[in-house]
Design goal:
The structure holds two protein chains of two kinds. Chain A is α+β, with helices and mostly antiparallel strands. Chain A contains five helices and five strands; from the N terminus they run ββαβββαααα. Chain B has three domains: about 190 residues, Aldehyde oxidase/xanthine dehydrogenase, molybdopterin binding domain (Aldehyde Oxidoreductase, domain 4), CATH 3.30.365.10; about 150 residues, Aldehyde Oxidoreductase, domain 4; about 300 residues, Aldehyde Oxidoreductase, domain 4. Classes of the chains: A alpha+beta, B alpha+beta. The complex binds FE2/S2 (inorganic) cluster (FES) (2 copies).
Chain lengths: ~170, ~700
């Protein structure tokens, strides 16, 4: 069995699994990090989104071999010493219902706010277009992204460190 | 199960107890709270390790930590906040000071089924009484210690307080003494003006774990030595396995075992991916009648409308049909899948004469009974842990996957997590029924409807063919409009498609047909749709209340931007009443719903922000169905398989939603489902007023 090494939430990991095993299942079943979710398996719902070298990436079809040598951040690694601004905004706006889609939504929103500190409505829609929330929390997601952007704007001391353990 | 991923409540098994009227040790249940069920509950109760456990719902330990047992499943609807609020309010503890445990399946908890939007409706009184009784016992224990009268004492923030002296004693120090006291049979509830939590916005207790990845759903159960499994089943409804080639998957990396099971093929392996990807390439042959398809369904529904049908309501003078003009319209709604965000799963482990199950289920007691039957084990040896549910919507009351998990667990060693792929979920669901409706009305010379006939044809949820299935007519039989002659009937249509409860059940399609038809009547009589409803709802004050509220709030009648139109609908369900006004545009990208105003009367309110969220969510659920939802049948099987062909509303499609909750002193009504029924007709009515043929078939983009 081939060995695959990558960085996971700031720590080096190595796993012995087939090359084509999707990163999603390596995270969930091998490494037992279950915050990243399975929703469709065909890149339609976004539940499986992580950051790969800082970029939001769906992992249900991403062979683990393609993560080799790269930095993977999951929802469990998004917070640094305190919660990420997006997580705080999600709490303030009381976004989750069942919560199952939210890891993925939050990872995409966090990546968006690193790219665009003041995203337009259209940018938010585009960044989250790949995510499904069956519970229908979209209105609150919109508000929470705006709130997180506000929080980041009034906190000039904000650094990537505040945004979690990963860099950009 | 100390090595399990969940905090398992010690020995939450059935334990015999000679319960006297004392709240100590092996615990006592306040039978008086359970009305007719008193006897059943006082026989055997779950034991508690906490010294003070005055009811099945709560216990307090020596550190003052309050544990609350959730006897309903959290599937996003907010019970894990609303139910603790009812206890914390009366117990006088802060909401964030309580610790929650999901109750294991145990009939001593009373019914644990989460459904019918009934959690708060059923538990509003029992949970408040449980909290109040515990509070009174704490106060009595403190008063005895201080040598003062209990009437001079009160409680606040987890402390008993003596008013005159200002002495305070934390609950933790009182538990031993309180446990020796009799449980008050009629604890006094707080007066409404003293309520601090109920009716106010409270943050949900489950939110923090749902933003940092720590929330544990069924698929997140991880146990030592856990293996994964899936069952491949015949894609043709009613069909069977004809044969399979085990070699087509055996030898694949991670696949351990392949065997025939329950009319399908079970694959067991060391990862979810190993078994789901093996299922995709499994070489299996199926037998079955591949004749059923949408054309057959349509023909059967058509015939159903012509059949005599079973009458559910017939009242008033049939001569009203001769009053003059009649109006008629037909409506169609398709089969629908639930598509809960968390794919279907359950985990089971059979060993040492015990069967332990971890399931995101709406029906833990049903799961327990099913497992007892499958394993032959007795009730105390079948332990069902309820995890968080990644959506339920009625699907997770069916427990098909629990059966799967137990069947596989019987065949293999160690714990096994049974997973359905999304494709299996969409193609093997228990579906919302497809329906056909014929509505007719007679109008008098003023244009007011004086006779109404609603015929529904559909397959039967209860499997009925020659008698009425009243479930299929929920929302139709109880037509609230004041019309002299009313006839409502249903006829059964044969179909091989398995049916289930789907958020708001029959209300979802009956509200569509009825509310669209009321707009047809308004058009026929050249009346304003709100004005006509107002006239017909004079003896239905709560319907009328939400109608007036929504019309005012939405600015009904005020001019709109070019290309936009408003539509209205009002519907009562699950003890609550909702009216909606949708502002809709028909553009190049299809139908756009820009704004929805909802007025809600759900009686006494527990947590307004959860109600708002449920209405927002119900609108999205209903809009997904109205604009996209359709399960098609071809060659005896479901055509759709995943989100690419069974699409969901996405963020860009989300309308602005305004929710107005009417103040009410009525009993609490349901909130989890009530947002679904009115949205489809509100949108269809808006489109009709934009001109062209009114939509009479769902989904709208299809019709
Ligand atoms: S699970 Fe990867 S996009 Fe749905
Ligand atoms: S919160 Fe349930 S799917 Fe999004």
């Amino acid at each position: 069995m081939p060995r695959h090494r990558f960085e996971l939430n700031g720590q080096p990991v190595s796993v012995d699994v087939p090359d084509e095993m999707p990163l999603l299942w390596v995270l969930r079943d091998v490494l037992q990090l279950t915050g990243t979710k399975y929703g469709c398996g065909i890149m339609q719902c976004g539940a499986c989104t992580v950051h790969l070298d800082g970029e939001p990436t769906r992992t249900c079809r991403l062979p683990v071999a393609e993560a080799a040598g790269r930095r993977v951040t999951t929802i469990e690694g998004l917070a640094g010493d305190s919660l990420h601004a997006v997580q705080r905004a999600w709490i303030a706006e009381q976004v989750p219902q069942c919560g199952y889609c939210q890891s993925g939504q939050i990872m995409s929103a966090a990546a968006l706010l690193r790219r665009a500190r003041r995203p337009s409505g259209a940018q938010v829609e585009a960044a989250l277009a790949g995510h499904i929330c069956r519970c229908g929390t979209y209105a609150r997601i919109r508000r929470a992204v705006a709130r997180a952007a506000d929080a980041l704007a009034v906190a000039p001391a904000w650094t990537d460190e505040d945004a979690g353990a990963e860099d950009g | 199960m100390a090595d399990g991923p969940f905090k398992v409540s010690r020995r939450d098994l059935l334990v015999a107890t000679g319960a006297g009227a004392v709240a100590g040790g092996a615990a006592l249940v306040l039978g008086v709270w359970y009305g007719r069920r008193q006897e059943r509950f006082t026989k055997r109760v779950p034991s508690r390790s906490q010294p003070f456990a005055p009811s099945i719902y709560l216990a307090i330990d020596g550190d003052g930590l309050v544990t609350i047992w959730l006897t309903r499943s959290e599937m996003g609807q907010g019970v894990s906040t609303a139910l603790p609020m009812l206890i914390a309010e009366e117990l006088e503890v802060e909401l964030d000071a309580v610790r929650l445990e999901h109750a294991v399946a145990n009939r001593n908890y009373g019914p644990q089924l989460t459904g019918n939007s009934a959690a708060v409706r059923k538990l509003w009184s029992p949970l408040r009484q449980a909290g109040a009784a515990a509070r009174e016992m704490m106060i009595a224990a403190a008063a005895a210690q201080w040598g003062v009268s209990a009437s001079e004492c009160s409680a606040r923030d987890g402390h008993a307080i003596h008013g005159p002296s200002g002495r305070r004693s934390p609950y933790g120090g009182l538990v031993e003494a309180a446990a020796a006291l009799p449980v008050p049979a009629k604890p006094r509830l707080k007066p409404d003006d003293a309520l601090r939590l109920l009716g106010r916005r409270q943050p949900r207790l489950d939110v923090p774990a749902k933003v940092d990845g720590s929330a544990r759903f069924g698929l997140d159960v991880r146990l030592p030595g856990l293996r994964y499994a899936t069952i491949v089943r015949c894609p043709i409804f009613g069909g069977d396995l004809a044969g399979f080639d085990a070699a087509s998957v055996q030898g694949r990396a991670g696949v351990d075992e392949v065997f025939e099971l329950d009319g399908g093929v079970a694959i067991v392996g060391d990862s979810t991916w190993a078994v789901l990807s093996a299922a995709e390439v499994l070489d299996a042959r199926w037998d079955g009648d591949a004749g059923f398809d949408d054309a057959q369904l349509a023909a059967r529904l058509e015939r159903g409308l012509e059949a005599a049908g079973h009458v559910a309501r017939e009242e008033g003078d049939a001569a009203r049909w001769k009053s003059g003009r009649t109006v008629q319209a037909e409506y169609r709604t398709p089969f629908l899948a639930h598509a809960t965000m968390e794919p279907i799963n359950a985990t089971a482990w059979i060993r040492d004469g015990r069967c332990e199950i971890w399931a995101p289920t709406q029906a833990p007691q049903g799961a327990q009974r099913m497992a007892m039957k499958l394993t032959g084990l007795a009730e105390p040896n079948v332990i069902v842990h309820v995890t968080l549910l990644g959506g339920g919507f009625g699907r997770r009351a069916a427990n098909i996957e629990v059966r799967d998990a137990v069947l596989v667990a019987k065949r293999v060693k160690g714990p096994v997590q049974l997973v359905w792929s999304r494709e299996a979920d969409v193609q093997h669901d228990v579906y919302r029924a497809a329906t056909a409706h014929r509505l007719e009305a007679a109008l008098d010379s003023e244009g007011a409807p004086v006779a109404w006939r609603h015929r529904v044809a559909s397959p039967s949820l209860m499997g009925r063919t020659d008698e009425l299935d009243p479930l299929m007519l929920h929302g139709a039989t109880e037509l609230p409009y004041g019309i002299e002659r009313v006839e409502v009937s249903w006829s059964s249509v044969a179909s091989p498609v398995p049916l289930g409860f789907w958020r708001s059940v029959a209300h979802s399609y009956n509200a569509f047909a009825i509310e669209c038809f009321v707009d047809e009547l308004a058009r026929a009589a050249q009346q304003d749709p709100v004005a006509l409803r107002r006239k017909l709802l004079q003896s239905a004050p709560r319907h009328l209340g939400v109608l007036e509220k929504v019309a005012a709030k939405a600015g009904w009648g005020a001019p709109l931007a070019a290309g936009l139109a408003r539509g209205v609908a009002v519907h009562g369900s699950f003890g609550s009443f909702v009216a909606m006004v949708a502002e809709v545009r028909r553009g190049e990208r299809g139908v756009t719903v820009e704004r929805v105003v909802a007025a809600v009367d759900c009686g006494r309110v527990v947590n307004p922000q959860i109600i708002e969220a449920q209405i927002e969510g119900g609108i999205v659920f209903g809009l997904t169905a109205a604009l996209h939802g359709r399960i098609e049948l071809r060659a005896g099987r479901v055509v759709q398989s995943n989100f690419h062909d069974y699409p969901m509303l996405r963020l860009a499609d989300m309308p602005e939603v305004v929710v107005e909750i009417l103040p009410s002193e009525e009993e609490p009504g349901g909130v989890g489902e009530i947002g679904v029924p009115p949205i489809a007709p509100a949108v269809a009515n808006a489109l009709a007023s934009l001109g062209g043929e009114p939509p009479r078939e769902l989904p709208i983009s299809h019709g």
